[in-house]
From TrEMBL, chain A:
<feature type="domain" description="CheR-type methyltransferase">
    <location>
        <begin position="223"/>
        <end position="483"/>
    </location>
</feature>
<dbReference type="Pfam" id="PF13596">
    <property type="entry name" value="PAS_10"/>
</dbReference>
<keyword id="KW-0067">ATP-binding</keyword>
<dbReference type="Pfam" id="PF03705">
    <property type="entry name" value="CheR_N"/>
</dbReference>
<keyword id="KW-0145">Chemotaxis</keyword>
<dbReference type="InterPro" id="IPR022642">
    <property type="entry name" value="CheR_C"/>
</dbReference>
<dbReference type="Pfam" id="PF01739">
    <property type="entry name" value="CheR"/>
</dbReference>
<keyword id="KW-0597">Phosphoprotein</keyword>
<dbReference type="InterPro" id="IPR035965">
    <property type="entry name" value="PAS-like_dom_sf"/>
</dbReference>
TrEMBL record, chain B:
<feature type="modified residue" description="4-aspartylphosphate">
    <location>
        <position position="59"/>
    </location>
</feature>
<keyword id="KW-0597">Phosphoprotein</keyword>
<dbReference type="Pfam" id="PF00072">
    <property type="entry name" value="Response_reg"/>
</dbReference>
<dbReference type="InterPro" id="IPR011006">
    <property type="entry name" value="CheY-like_superfamily"/>
</dbReference>
<protein>
    <submittedName>
        <fullName>Response regulator</fullName>
    </submittedName>
</protein>
<dbReference type="InterPro" id="IPR001789">
    <property type="entry name" value="Sig_transdc_resp-reg_receiver"/>
</dbReference>
<feature type="domain" description="Response regulatory">
    <location>
        <begin position="9"/>
        <end position="120"/>
    </location>
</feature>
């Protein structure tokens, strides 16, 4: 559907249905409002209701159900082709727009051209066109602006427009948008809407009556005058039926039925005139209205104009009645396009005027609702507008082509020398005699061969001598003829007091002023036959005079005031004042006789009559009473004979007549010329005023821009001064435009170098070809980033060279060099590098494996050593589970639990656990970890190292300690047992004590072997013997073999005890008791059996002593433990003992 | 404190001969019918195969294992068990074998006597044990 194409203001729409149809539109928050509204619906109000709601097309609408519950009226969802019946509620289904056409409701699928979904606007438009004054639009709660355009159309066809009071709406966007159009009749809370609507339409019959009433027609002039007084706008030439209808409507809204009441309201209430204006000035205009006609305009007017050599300097266009500006912008766009196409280089000016200041301001801003984009041809949408959300603005280059100003077509002088006038849908407002005057005005304003473009229902008022039709259908006319018949003068004072009543009233108002009302004929008669008279005011000033007064009054030179008191001759002078006073006092005329007026020529007796005039002055009439008594003086000159005198007089007269005629003609000519000049002056004035207004606006804008620029400059200055960055800005030729202090570290720049090419300035940067870097940036638009070093110092900079980017239309090119001192960073980097290496070295030396884990992302990193330690494959280095898999099952649970605690609670992690390698080797590993919280989330970092050795040592140690404990305990038990046995064998206490002590000492010596022995399990037999013998023998009396045999440590106690007994015996009784006695030991092993031979020599043996004498019980017991045996053989030389023990490995 | 009856058969399992001897003397002095000394678990099993004992005095660590392996067999014959060990802290054993008595090396005569009595009582069910 086209926006407003048929929505001509004042198009009389015959309602399709004879009952009112109410269109209700709502969006968010509308359900509630809707319920309230329909709850007040009366069963037989005689209206039909159509409800449009913003719905998600995929959503089922609850509305039908909801409304059925609050009202008894039948509520239904619209189906294609539904008839509209009164007292029914019709609901639009989701996903469709509704069109009321040919008496039925039609479903139109919702499209989305550029995201425009305005179902409420669309419906309201079709409602306006179908029902005209029988239509009513209601906008309820919602966001956005849907509905405001539609309301305008309803208003323009005379329907009723209502918006929900924003303070009662859940979402006040749509109601506010509707209110801001100014096209509302009522703003109401939902519960009052239907009652008001019902009342309005019931009274609308009365409205028709009022509309046609004679009385309103008669009072029109007064109303127009009041409007003029209050708003300065003159509507007297507008079509009366329009005015009548609109005023009647206004009265309807105000519930006024008497015209006089409305006139009073207009007088007394200041805003009423404004409100009425809004009614009258319905500004329904749009871009490319009647696109096919604009297309014709383009091909038949605009293109020829642009191509025409005669208009190569300038093209001037005027759009009177431009309202909110869409039409002039439309024409500007077409002109711009054609100019580009045909390479037109001249100036293009579009003057756009309107009497409504508010509209001019809107037009100047050039901002329109996004819905209007659809009116623009596609090819213009990208280049001529700047889009925003919900609205767009005309692009600056189009806006610059149009000059807006407030201008009355009728009162103000027109523009001139125009190539095109586009005045569409303005003339239809006017009465035909007004139109008759405007068409010639246009003719005057246009150049020869200029064009006139009118609206579809307009015409040239039969002035075919002024215009010929170029395209009748499109209403394109071409100017013909040369001179303009501007007979009534410019400016056209078309509306000055031409109305009947106005004239009369004016006359009444002017009653206080005097007028020259006589024609020359009357004056002649009066002068000849009427008595001389003067008219004076109460102060004696003469305002009028007639007749020959020299007898009564003298003339006085140099007096600007003509006072009768001064001028009256003697005789009259004395009485005239009194007469005037008396006349005024009495309010009626008097007569005074016998006044003798003396003049130089004689005395005249007169009667003075006085009369009050209509304007409260006094007329003094001089009637001669008798003959004039002449008193001649010698000064008088005799008259010359009659004939020569008359001949002379006649001669003079003809000459005078001739001169007069010439003078008059010259005067007339001069007058005409002056008029012409005046017209031109006026025109120029108009243009200048227009231009002035535009300049002022531009000036304002420039001032603001200047302020902004000043601030931006200050900002820039501050930034440059305070920055540590070295910045050099170059123009297109690589000349320095701006640089900061810090840049001088890299380039030897001074203040005077601005304007020099940078390549002429000494660069301190090492190994960089500045010229080529700059070239690439400027010409190829390529950026350069590099860390560079200064030649002579260890200073590093991050150097960037970027192409210069411009956001304005000045695409100036150039480059920007930015230097950022990173010397510190570089040093830091180097130092860190060193530290890093040291660390790596340390870690590697200590074989410490490092890992890092991010719990949030489950990222895990490990190093080589860790992989080694856990025997995990390189491919699994990021898989934490692969490491956990290597841990021994027994140790795993506790490990995981501790790890978990570190992850969640941040506790320091420390644990020892075992892992098993592929080859089955078990290692002890110690793990340490910490959680660090960084910006990127928590991170766990830890180390692991092999503690197998320590662990094993530790275990061994534990084992050792336990073993030691055990041994010690055992030894105590042994000693306890030893005590018991020794006690059994000893007879005296001293004996007990000494034997026991010796035995304990012997045992002690046996155990000395274990002191430095690494191996806990084996001891050396030879060492045992050596140890045991040492205290009681010398090198000479014991012979030991050189070989050695290992003994289990477990044998130490029993064997030690046995040897001790044998030795004690040998020392006390055996060979070692003899001076030359000695002992020979020899031992061997065979399988598990160890044999030790104990041979004593040099002893005197007398037979076999008692075996059980010496510790034999001890020996017996010990042998039991050793699994051994002992044989005694007493040889003459000494005792030989054979000892066998079983070695258990 | 009740005395032993003279009908007790005692098994001593101890690898240190002197200690074994000492124990033997002690138990004999308390009055026992017979005392058998075993020096390792193998020997002990042999002895157990030959006869049942009323009391078994067991050193814990033998050359061929821990003497606790004999406990099930001893329980079957209701033999009173007295562990005699150089390892002081074997709290886990006390928990595991609540019907056994523990003495630490070296133990005085009195200690042994009282341990024997208690162990005997437990074995004969006169005293409740944790086992129930």
């Amino acid at each position: 559907m086209d926006h407003d194409r048929k929505g001509d203001p004042d198009q009389i729409v015959q309602p399709m249905f004879d009952f009112p149809i109410v269109g209700v539109g709502a969006s968010a928050g509308g359900l509630e409002a809707m319920s309230t509204v329909f709850a007040t619906a009366e069963a037989d109000a005689g209206m039909a209701y159509v409800v449009i709601q913003h719905l998600d097309p995929h959503h089922k609408s609850l509305l039908t159900e909801l409304l059925s519950r609050v009202t008894d009226l039948p509520v239904q969802q619209i189906e294609e082709g539904d008839l509209v019946e009164r007292d029914n509620v019709y609901i639009a289904p989701p996903g469709f727009m509704i069109e009321l056409r040919d008496g039925r409701l039609h479903l139109v699928p919702l499209e989305e051209p550029r995201g425009v979904r305005r179902p409420i606007d669309e419906f309201m438009r079709s409602l306006a066109q179908a029902q005209g004054e029988m239509g009513c639009g209601v906008i309820l709660s919602g966001t956005g602006t849907d509905g405001s355009l539609g309301l305008r159309t309803i208003r323009s066809t005379g329907g009723l427009c209502i918006a929900q009071d924003p303070s009662t709406a859940k979402y006040d966007g749509m109601p506010n948008a509707a209110i801001s159009t100014g096209q509302l009749d009522l703003i109401l809370p939902p519960d009052r809407m239907l009652p008001e609507i019902s009342r309005f339409f019931t009274q609308s019959k009365d409205r028709w009556i009022i509309g046609q009433s004679r009385e309103l027609y008669n009072r029109l002039p007064i109303i127009c005058e009041l409007i003029n007084e209050k708003t300065g706008l003159d509507f007297t030439g507008y079509k009366s039926p329009t005015l009548l209808r609109r005023i009647a409507r206004r009265m309807q809204i105000l519930h006024l039925s008497k015209v006089e009441d409305y006139v009073d309201r207009l007088r007394q209430v200041d805003d009423e005139a404004e409100a009425l204006i809004e009614e009258l000035l319905i500004n329904v205009t749009a871009f490319f209205r009647d696109p096919e006609y604009f297309e014709k305009l383009r091909t038949e007017v605009i293109e020829p104009m642009v191509k025409d050599p005669a208009s190569q300097n300038e093209i001037r266009v005027w759009v009177p009645g431009c309202s909110s500006g869409q039409e002039p912008y439309t024409i500007a766009m077409l002109l711009n396009e054609a100019a580009r196409e045909y390479k037109y280089r001249g100036r293009i000016q579009v003057f756009a005027t309107d009497i409504d200041r508010a509209m001019i301001e809107i037009a100047r801003e050039g901002r329109y609702s996004a819905a209007a984009i659809g009116d623009l041809p596609e090819r213009f949408r990208d280049s001529f507008i700047i889009g925003n959300t919900g609205s767009f603005q005309i692009a600056p280059r189009i806006r610059d082509m149009v000059r807006f100003s407030v201008h009355s077509l009728i009162k103000d002088p027109p523009f001139s020398k125009l190539d095109l006038i586009s005045c569409r849908n303005l003339l239809i407002y006017m009465e035909s005699d007004l139109q008759d005057k405007v068409i010639p005005l246009f003719h005057y304003a246009l150049r020869p061969d200029g064009y006139l473009f009118l609206g579809p229902s307009e015409g040239i008022s039969k002035k075919t001598e002024l215009f010929r039709a170029l395209n009748q259908k499109a209403r394109i006319f071409k100017r013909v003829g040369h001179n303009s018949p501007l007979s009534s003068g410019v400016p056209l004072t078309l509306f000055s007091a031409t109305s009947r009543e106005a004239k009369k009233d004016k006359a009444q108002r002017n009653a206080g002023r005097f007028e020259h009302f006589d024609s020359p004929n009357l004056t002649a008669i009066r002068e000849a036959f009427a008595p001389p008279f003067v008219i004076v005011d109460k102060d004696g000033h003469i305002h009028e005079s007639s007749g020959e007064l020299s007898v009564y009054l003298q003339s006085v030179h140099g007096e600007s005031k003509q006072l009768i008191g001064i001028l009256a001759r003697p005789g009259l002078a004395e009485v005239v004042g009194e007469v005037i006073e008396t006349t005024i006092a009495r309010g009626e005329g008097i007569a005074m006789e016998g006044i003798e007026v003396t003049s130089p020529f004689g005395v005249q007796k007169i009667t003075l009559y006085s009369r009050m005039t209509a304007d409260h002055n006094v007329a003094l009439v001089f009637i001669d009473d008798g003959q004039f008594k002449a008193q001649y003086s010698s000064k008088f000159v005799q008259r010359t004979p009659e004939d020569s005198r008359s001949a002379r007089l006649e001669n003079d007269l003809s000459k005078l007549r001739y001169e007069l005629r010439i003078t008059v003609e010259e005067l007339e000519t001069a007058n005409e010329e002056l008029k012409s000049s005046n017209e031109e002056m006026m025109s120029m004035n108009e243009e200048l005023q227009s231009a002035n207004e535009e300049l002022e606006t531009a000036n304002e804008e420039l001032k603001t821009k200047l302020d902004e620029i000043a601030i931006a400059n200050d900002d820039l200055d501050n930034i440059l001064r305070s920055t540590q960055l070295g910045i050099v800005v170059l123009d297109q030729d690589a000349r320095v435009r701006v640089f900061t202090n810090a840049a001088t570290a890299a380039f030897r720049l001074q203040a005077g170098d601005v304007g020099r090419q940078l390549t002429d300035v000494r660069s301190l940067i090492d190994k960089v070809d500045i010229k080529s870097v700059i070239d690439r940036a400027i010409n190829e638009k390529k950026s350069y980033v590099q860390i560079v070093r200064l030649e002579n110092e260890a200073r590093y900079f991050m150097m960037r060279c970027l192409p210069y980017k411009s956001t304005s239309h000045l695409d100036s090119g150039g480059a920007v060099i930015v230097l950022n001192d990173v010397s510190e960073l570089k040093l830091l980097e180097a130092s860190l590098g060193l530290k890093s290496e040291r660390l790596a070295f340390a870690l590697s030396g200590a074989k410490i494996g490092v890992w890092e884990y991010a719990p949030e992302t489950q990222e895990f990193i490990s190093d080589e050593r860790l992989l080694d330690l856990f025997d995990v494959q390189l491919s699994d280095s990021h898989d934490m589970e692969a490491f956990f898999d290597k841990v021994l099952t027994e140790d795993l649970a506790e490990l995981r639990s501790k790890f978990e605690k570190t992850v969640t609670a941040g506790l320091p992690f420390e644990h020892q656990f075992r892992v098993r390698t592929q080859r089955g080797e078990t290692r002890w590993i110690k793990g340490l970890g910490r959680r660090f919280d960084s910006e990127e989330g928590p991170r766990l970092i830890g180390v692991n190292y092999d503690i197998t050795a320590q662990q094993e040592a530790s275990i061994r140690q534990d084992l050792l300690v336990r073993e030691m404990n055990h041994r010690v305990k055992n030894l105590f038990a042994v000693i306890s047992a030893l005590t018991t046995i020794t006690d059994m064998e000893s007879e005296t206490k001293p004996e007990l004590v000494s034997t026991l002590k010796e035995r304990i000492a012997g045992l002690g010596r046996a155990y000395e072997l274990t002191q430095n022995n690494r191996d806990l399990r084996m001891v050396s037999l030879r060492s045992l013997l050596v140890n045991m013998f040492r205290p009681v023998t010398t090198d000479n009396n014991v012979i030991l073999p050189d070989s050695d045999l290992p003994l289990p440590t477990a044998t130490l106690t029993p064997l030690g005890l046995i040897l001790h007994e044998l030795l004690t015996n040998a020392i006390k009784y055996g060979s070692l008791a003899q001076p030359h006695g000695y002992l020979e030991i020899d031992y061997s092993r065979e399988g598990k059996l160890l044999t030790l031979n104990w041979s004593e020599h040099g002893a005197k043996v007398d037979g076999e002593p008692d075996k059980s004498g010496f510790g034999s019980r001890l020996i017996t017991q010990s042998l039991r433990q050793l699994g051994g045996d002992i044989e005694f053989d007493w040889k003459p030389d000494g005792l030989n003992i054979r000892l066998t023990i079983t070695i258990r490995d | 404190m009740p005395n032993f009856s003279r009908d007790l058969d005692v098994l001593i399992l101890e690898d240190e001969a002197l200690i074994s001897f000492d124990l033997e003397l002690l138990i004999s002095s308390c009055g026992a019918k017979s005392v058998v000394c075993a020096f390792d678990i193998e020997q002990a099993r042999e002895a157990l195969a030959q006869q049942t004992f009323d009391i078994a005095v067991l050193d814990l660590n033998l050359p061929d294992g821990e003497s606790t392996v004999l406990v099930p067999d001893l329980r079957k014959t209701n033999t009173a068990i007295v562990f005699h060990s150089g390892h002081a802290e074997r709290a886990d054993l006390m928990e595991r074998y609540p019907y056994a008595e523990f003495t630490a090396k070296p133990a005085a005569v009195q200690t042994f006597k009282s341990a024997f009595v208690t162990a005997l009582a437990k074995a004969q069910g006169a005293l409740p044990t944790a086992e129930g």
